[in-house]
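Hello forum,

I keep getting stuck at the same step: I have a sequence, I want structure tokens, and every attempt I make locally crashes halfway through. Rather than fight my setup again tonight, could one of you with a working pipeline run this one for me? It's a single chain of 280 residues.
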Amino acid sequence: MRSTTLPIKDDLLSLKTLKRISHAEISQATNGFKESNMLGSGSFRYIYKGRLLDGMEVAIKVFNLQTDGAFRNFDIECDAMRNIVHHNIVKVITCYSSVDFKALMLDYMSNGNLEKWLHSKSCFIHIIQRVDIMIDVATAIEHLHNGHPTPIIHSDLKPSNILLDKDMVVHVGDFGISNLLGEGDVVKQTMTLATIGYMAPEFGSAGIVSIKCDVYSYGIVFIENFTKKKPTDNYFAEQVTIRHWMESSLSKGVIEIADVDLLKREDVKTNCISSIMKLA
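Reply #2:
Ran it on my machine without issues. Output:
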């Protein structure tokens, strides 16, 4: 295994300042990839909390190269993120790439992700914070779609990919199945599907992705953010999606659909939540 740092391909991640890191330093930072350091896992990767020798806390995404598609996942994420610099998108500090080990080092988000804040009994986010979070996410997505010569489609927007720093500012992450549109293109065909429930219908049925797919996913996250209901809850069947449930329930009043923890707060006005629901 290489003990050097920096990617094998020169253009893999052309960030202006790449921090040099070795495999040994990554292992040391994560206490030998100890399970207690693990922040989460997914189809292609494990994410560890790490502390570098200078005391800096980082998140280290280690790709599971035994999984089909992991090499492609790593390349896609590097390709998508090499030119992205935005305060609402997670920052890549550096990456390590060898034949048998690939990892991305990212800014550590001390407040975890939106999934934790919405669905953990020990967490609560006030209505203003929830609005701020959705504004941050919208700002990130707008930058991806319009801040580059060719649009970047995140393709897998969901609460677990919406990361929160110490000030509860959003940093959208996980670009492993993102799609870069070619010049003049508005849609792209892909074989890689996103997360069920957050995926736009045309994405799931025909593998067609466009910026509209991110907008659809954003709307689903928006609904979940204020109802605390997941699109994959048993309550929803194939015929009754969370979006259709929201549409049909609005006429019954906010109390029927809003997060009950929000409604318990005396300073939260139902007409405010009603406007938010209609927007969602």
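Residues 127-146 form the longest helix (20 residues). If your local run keeps crashing, start a new thread with the error log.
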